[in-house]
Design brief:
The structure holds two protein chains of two kinds. Chain A is α+β, with helices and mostly antiparallel strands. Chain A has twelve helices and ten strands. Chain A is globular, with a radius of gyration of 22 Å. In chain B, α8 packs antiparallel against α9. The chains are: A alpha+beta, B alpha+beta. Chains A and B meet through α9, α10 and α12 of A and α7, α8, α9 and α11 of B.
Amino acid sequence: MDFNFTQDENDFRQEIKDWLSKNLSQRISNKVKKFQRLDKNDYEEFMKALSAKGWLAVNWPKEHGGTGWSNTQKHIFEEEIVKAGAPRVVPFGLNMLGPVLMEFGNEEQKKYYLPRILNCDDWWAQGYSEPGSGSDLASLKTRAVDHGDHYIVNGQKTWTTLGQFANKIFCLVKTDTDCKPQNGISFLLIDIDSPGIEVRPIITLDGEHEVNEVWLKDVKVPKENLLGEENKGWTYAKYLLTHERTGIAGVPNSKSAINHLKVIANKTYKNGKPLIQDPLFSSQIAELEIDLKAMEIFNLRAISSAESGKAPVMESSLLKIKGSIIRQKTSDLLRKAIGPQALPYISEQFDEGWNQETIGPEYAGPLAKQYFIYRKISIYGGSNEIQKNIVAKSEFRM
Amino acid sequence: MHFNLSEERKMLKESCDRLLNDHYTQYKNHHEVSSSETGFNKKFWEECSEIGMLSALISPNFNGLGGTGEDIMIVFELIGKHLVVEPFLSSGILSITSLTNSKDIETSVLDEISSASKIYAFGHSEVDTRYDETYIKTKANYKNDAVFLTGQKSFVLNGDYADKIICTARFSGNDFDQNGFGLYEIDKTHCDIRSYNTIDGYRAAELKFSEIPAKELCKNSDAYNALLETLYAGAFALSAESIGAMEVCFNMTLEYLKTREQFGKAIGSFQALQHRMVDIMIEIEQAKSAVMLASGTYEADKNTKYKNISAAKNLVGRAGKLVAEECIQLHGGIAMTWEYNLHNYAKRLVMIDHLMGDSDHHLEKFKLYSNY
């Protein structure tokens, strides 16, 4: 066993840090740290900078313009961009569609779409979930009917994250209804500007607009936009879900959240002493910190076994579950740490440039809101219960 | 960065595993061994020594072949896997650590331990001192060039059949002082010994003594440092032991879920039970990771070392209790019987939390070493 990063890996980390300090604008990282709303340009500014450096497609092989990095390097990179307060790299084109295109797309599709993802010409959205198909994804109802050289698509997609910024959407659609649900699904690449598509905001419980409904009414999709073979979409969808999930535990996010929690617990007072000295409260932080440290090692173990070629399927599911619990627990303690300061909700505080006086400390504003929205972490990406089903099926064989 | 064992250590692990397995399958369970006249199997203890399981706990500086965090972790995971009652903790880790941290120790003393020719025990706890590190009421009385001990040591693991006892005793200051106590070696023939079995099937003793001759090993800050090293070495070894026992509980339960039928099918087909198994699995992986981290920093500065051991012991305490309780529940009635072996592992897991500081104790220590 060896817990140390190699000299090369440490140099790599330093290189990332140096680059971020020069290329991630203060304006954007401030917004991220204050939980302010990011617009399309904020995301694109950072992603284009990464693209210019050649660091955007961390999960892609070199031949397609990716970094070709090892899992350990990806992990280091992920840690550093979270630490620096960068906006997240929008994953739908890069980490979801990209690998599926490379594996199952035809030459023309690869040649056309991959560079456009790499250059941030296209913003992809994910069209998987439907109002009636959440955990039971294969039950989806959106229909694509064959009209010779094109399909006519009718249906509705939902939970489309950042769909308001997207110009493209990859959709799972039904092309055959006379078979087992999994066997009649196809994978279509669709222009959001196509006539008949409407993107409507869903306002989530925190009052924010991040996810959307996408309505498709008689949308004409050319046949060349079919990815792979007709009725094989479920295979591609599953491939996408198991691909590159070593970051799923959210270790860097939880690390910075716990640091934030400790800072706040030092500034907040209870019985005349910093909250961090309160045995009740500090024990909860400490337990969380112990769990996170253990999970970090668990995550590194999964990364290192992936490095030696074993697909960490079971580990991914376990890490997703534990990671979501830790992130939620941290947001829970952050909310508790500030007491009644959690109550005020000043929506404008989350707009760029807002400079009025806060009620209570500035850091208090987003904490309750974050707590509520973080309930999503154990629901999305295959809910924790679905992850448990996956593990039971693959590991227990029962 | 990698988490694989070296070839050498893989071999150590395999040969130890084989020996322990062969030996313990002769018995119905470990109670049979600890309830015997001697409380352990001397021949087997010598075999353990012969294949290097004891030298693996001793650093080359003291003529051993190991003594690193990784060595201790490997050996104690196996101890937990096979519920070994032989004195690996007492005569092994605790005595070795207190001796090697004492002053002017001759390597020959450690050779006696590693060759299984002498058995040591370690007595620190007193009947009501709980997990407090420096709460010592046993008295050391210096007269001329000699020192004599009076007091009582409790829950001394394997204390009844050890040849020598290392214990703490105070010569000045109040009961909690970090100064004013020492580590001493006493002879068991001078002690009044009350021997008993523990709830989890191990052997321990209450020792009483009055003005008996002792040999000073170290005192004041040296003794304090040696004591901390010893208590943390023990906490670390027990954490690794817990991992081995947790894995056995998990595998037994999984096997049972696959074979036990109710309502016409294997109970493992029920989602309510499957999900609880995944919860256990997560906590075992977490605990394993914490123990690995503690092993990786066992040779680091004391603050880091103690912090990570406390984190591991805390997590193992929580996870061990979860595994014990859930595996009993998932089995159902069968797990309530003496006949079915699960209770032995469940008891060990819970009792590990009663040795060398429980999860609350180590949470406090973790905060201390993390500067909360």
